[in-house]
UniProtKB/TrEMBL annotation:
<keyword id="KW-0812">Transmembrane</keyword>
<feature type="domain" description="Fatty acid desaturase">
    <location>
        <begin position="137"/>
        <end position="423"/>
    </location>
</feature>
<dbReference type="GO" id="GO:0016020">
    <property type="term" value="C:membrane"/>
</dbReference>
<keyword id="KW-0472">Membrane</keyword>
<feature type="transmembrane region" description="Helical">
    <location>
        <begin position="134"/>
        <end position="152"/>
    </location>
</feature>
<dbReference type="InterPro" id="IPR021863">
    <property type="entry name" value="FAS_N"/>
</dbReference>
<comment type="similarity">
    <text>Belongs to the fatty acid desaturase type 1 family.</text>
</comment>
<feature type="compositionally biased region" description="Low complexity">
    <location>
        <begin position="42"/>
        <end position="54"/>
    </location>
</feature>
<dbReference type="GO" id="GO:0006629">
    <property type="term" value="P:lipid metabolic process"/>
</dbReference>
<feature type="domain" description="Fatty acid desaturase N-terminal">
    <location>
        <begin position="76"/>
        <end position="110"/>
    </location>
</feature>
<feature type="transmembrane region" description="Helical">
    <location>
        <begin position="172"/>
        <end position="188"/>
    </location>
</feature>
<dbReference type="Pfam" id="PF00487">
    <property type="entry name" value="FA_desaturase"/>
</dbReference>
<dbReference type="InterPro" id="IPR005804">
    <property type="entry name" value="FA_desaturase_dom"/>
</dbReference>
<dbReference type="GO" id="GO:0016717">
    <property type="term" value="F:oxidoreductase activity, acting on paired donors, with oxidation of a pair of donors resulting in the reduction of molecular oxygen to two molecules of water"/>
</dbReference>
<keyword id="KW-0560">Oxidoreductase</keyword>
<dbReference type="Pfam" id="PF11960">
    <property type="entry name" value="DUF3474"/>
</dbReference>
<dbReference type="InterPro" id="IPR012171">
    <property type="entry name" value="Fatty_acid_desaturase"/>
</dbReference>
Amino acid sequence: MASATSTSRPAKPAAVKRTITNASYESSPSTADASPNESPRHSPSTTSLSSMASDAAGEKVDYGKLVDTYGNEFQVPDFTIKDIRDAIPKHCFNRSYVRSMSYVFRDMILLATTFYLWHNYVTPQIIPSKALRIVLWAVYGFAQGLFGTGLWVLAHECGHGAFSDSQRFNNVVGWVLHSSLLVPYFSWQMSHSKHHKATGNIERDMVFVPRTRDQQATRIGRLAHELSELTEETPIYTFIHLLGQQLIGWPNYLLTNVTGHNYHERQREGRGKGKHNGYGGGVNHFDPRSPLYEAKDAWLIVMSDIGLGVAISALVYLGNRFGWSNLAVWYFLPYVWVNHWLVAITFLQHTDPSLPHYTAEQWNFVRGAAATIDREFGFIGRHLLHGIIETHVLHHYVSSIPFYNADEATEAIKPIMGRHYRADTSEGPIGFIKAMWKSARWCQWIEPSEGATQAGQGVLFFRNRNGLGPKPLKTSS
């Protein structure tokens, strides 16, 4: 059942109007708590859909007519991070290592119990039908993938300092949990921190940075001005792209920084000279020399690699001891599901036809954090995945709030965000899955709105060549 903040589905692709309902109509180093206070002054009563907003000095800036991918007029956020933090009840910031660890134990018990039941009872002696055993082991992989993703999310809490008041305790728990899932804990923690500090900034964000118009044109071998004339992509192409994204997107990101920014030459220590995203580009999460990090953090990258080494050694031992075909079903099938959910969740938190991106000149922390969206995945999302899907907007403003307080904190910030709070909760879990296809079809590259003024040229929206939403800009070059 859709919540009060669900959005209506567009009726016609070409000229659709989307209503993003919101509260105004209804109701540590690794975290964003150290966020820069570079956000406009609060002036909610003087801002309208004409895209007038205040800059950092409080001066009014006319962005022209900004139009998102649904064809709705867009307003640049003008509240402050202080407004957000002041609205959240103080107890929401409280963290309990006992409560947090209880969820770790719960998820481990679910993993162990499921393995015990399948290993002992889904056998040829008890279930003679091979076809039925295959189906049941497929169910095992799906269920273990959800439980494993739950542990992934708890390690993510550790990385943000939301797990307990002790950062050392957080790092020990996070390192163990993430290493067991073949995730380089400290390496990811640092790059993920940079993602939070630059969300929506096309030159600094670290994940799911969309292509610009020129980059998209280069990718498909056409000039930028031809994009408005190109015909529709085939659905089979979209499907293949999504399949590749879901199967290998996460390891590809760790190995090559795919979907991250590619401005490594700007790395302040010069570590990015001659390096670029892609295989052989020297940008990854495993090399202490990677431009994703500073020299002082090299030992943390090594610690992450050691954690992976221990986990891989354990897997090799188990494979040799019990057989690699067994290990493939016991561990690697759930592992693929964990990666799938991780990529799907992150993709849909930052990719939606209603969301903007910003150039470096127009970006600030408040605007970037508002360029995220909450979704709904029912019981699985709220209980097995610890609410990471349903409370992501709040998470980008204050990442140290533990997940079990995030719902209350989310409700508290909705009145401050007003129309800028976005949530697509229609159809619940089914809607979440459908959103993957919709976002892949609607969100192909970003460009300014046709009616944007000089300042508005730095506020970019998704466009596509599938005839969905506003047509791409027509340019002469």
